[in-house]
Amino acid sequence: MSDPTTPSRSVTRRPLAAVGLALALAVAVAAGCGPSSTGAASTSPAPSAPSSTSSRGAASATRGCVSPARPTTIAYETIAGVDPNLTSLDVHAPASACGAPVVVWVHGGGYQTGDKANQIADKVRLFNGHGWILVSVNYRLTKPGDPKSAQYPDHFHDVAAAVAWVHRNIAGYGGDPTRVALLGHSAGADIVSNVADNPAYLAQQGLDLKAITCAGPLDTEGFDKATAGARDPDGEKAQWKVALGNQPDYLTSTSAALLVKRGIGIPPTIGVVRGSAQRRQVETDYLAALRSVGVATTTIDARSLSHQQVNQRIGAPGDTVMTAPLVAFLTTCF
Predict the structure, then answer these.
(1) Which partner for 101 in 83, 234, 261, 334 could form a disulfide, CB atoms 3.0-4.6 Å apart?
(2) What is the reported pTM?
(3) Closest among 122, 137, 54, 130 to 97, alpha carbons compared
């Protein structure tokens, strides 16, 4: 098995002097919400608590405030031959943002589809309403049969590069780079868990895992691909093989539950448990693996929701499953 701490794939990149350049991109906003459901969240004992609110608040007081003239769609990286939209992000900042916490959102879509504008309107209202900045991220997508499209570790690299952009630039949008939550759904959750639990991706950006204050990989069996894939040969395993299969041992080297280690800085993490008995077990075992190495975890009981509803209900009017426990977790995190 190759060393999962040293991902690499050769690409040609232009220097990142372009981190502050705007793209002439249209930002399409789509929202979705379904009927309300009930649910509950449980929080594990916190063997290692996040940094104190008071110390982070003091740090934020030294940061800048929002500048309305700044572009809101930005290229966080420029890669030759790649559609610039795929390596861009959208910054949704409250009008009065000043030293505000930052939520970075990573969309799903099976590594092959999706966009940073999908299902984002309710999240913007929710997080901005709490005075937080929302940064929604795109990443390179995999096109089946096209070896020039994204392959391992491109998706993970891109999200790490976006986190690095936030860390270095968000103060100019009124954000506090010492308070950054990284959240994602479905394939986005798989990416988030890899970036938050494997230090190699942020290390390539000159950062360590402390750049992420807390993490929320929401609903994926990718935490343990070997276990999930063995019983689901035509489901998620297929999308993992297409996107990540250029890594011979991808079933293990991209399974976050198998990568967690004590003392490497993995942030407090929130997850959901839902779906089939197998899926619930994979999600439960991942959170247990984190706790076993001293990481504080919070669990949302989302058994009443479908996979898509986990995403759609965040911030949706009338939601009683996802929104309150996620906001409570982030409030404690920040």
Answers:
(1) 334
(2) 0.84
(3) 130
